[in-house]
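Good morning N.,

You mentioned wanting to compare the apo and holo forms, so I went ahead and generated the holo version with magnesium ion. This is what I fed in:
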Amino acid sequence: MRAEYSSPTAMPKLLVVDDQPLFIQTMHEIFRDQYEIFMARNGEQALAQAGRLCPDLILLDLNMPDISGMEVCQRLKQNPALADIPVLFVTAEEDFESESLALEAGGADYITKPVNPAVVRARVRTHLTLKAQADQLRALAYLDGLTGVANRRYFDQHLDAEWARSQRHHMPLSLILLDIDFFKTYNDHLGHIAGDQCLKAVAGALQALPKRGHDFVARYGGEEFVVLLADCDLPCALRKAAALQEAVAQLAIQHPASTVSELVTISLGVASTVAGAAHTAGELLDAADRQLYAAKQAGRNRISPAADHAGTAGSTPP
Ligand code: GH3
Ligand code: MG
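and this is what came out, ligand included:
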């Protein structure tokens, strides 16, 4: 899952997958007034389209010449970014065995051809409503209410998963833990509401920087944020840290009580490791935390890197 959810006001996106153009056309006729319709003629196209569009719902044929609908569904369910999309099988297969296998593969519903327009419309509407409700619940559960970035719960759940993925694929994984400098005195001088606005602006600047597939920003606690960088080694993470520091500087928020700058600044601890090393996700997090502390000790408004959890600390002044 990712910390992005479809807007409740946007027209829902439907992906129709079938090797029969006539059937796709029929679905288009039925749904074009209410939904944005996309189509795929085979399993490969379906997976590519799903990854690109992240549709709200997929109508999936069971029997197709290349990858079967069953396998397409299984692969979608294995991909955390796509697993929550409801898949409705639409097929000429009427036997109970196919139906139960399709539902076991993760299908949300099973509709037999020839379809009745009113029935297929009602079922699609029901599943879209359920999906919208589930999206709202996930947003409440996983997004930070003040800043809109992923929350600590999301981070905790995804750190372990990303650690496991990096180990499996022998890829490096990096973490940046960052904290606003002298934020207590910012609040003391300008008030808590201004403090909240500052937090929102900083979170927005962090979030706005380009991200790759599995990367994300989360609010780790009070005025502390964490950035997870998949398949990113230490030099890569240091470039990212410098970009984050610059992005916050570009906000140019006046800080009347800071002793390091006239503007709001951040300190950043960076930790990185390579897959295969006998470390844990928790140790990586501890390493980033130690480096954040080192950056604070060294004067704030700077980046402190560690090559791995046992690595030597060093501080990069601004
Ligand atoms: P340092 O440079 O060492 O990080 O000092 P600091 O003042 O930033 O750190 P400290 O931990 O002493 O203070 C953090 C402050 O952040 C205290 C707390 O009131 C404030 N804070 C935490 N969460 C929020 C929030 O949601 N809104 C506002 N306005 N302030 C918050
Ligand atoms: Mg602070």
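The first helix runs from residue 21 to 31.

Happy to go through it together on a call whenever suits you.

Best,
F.
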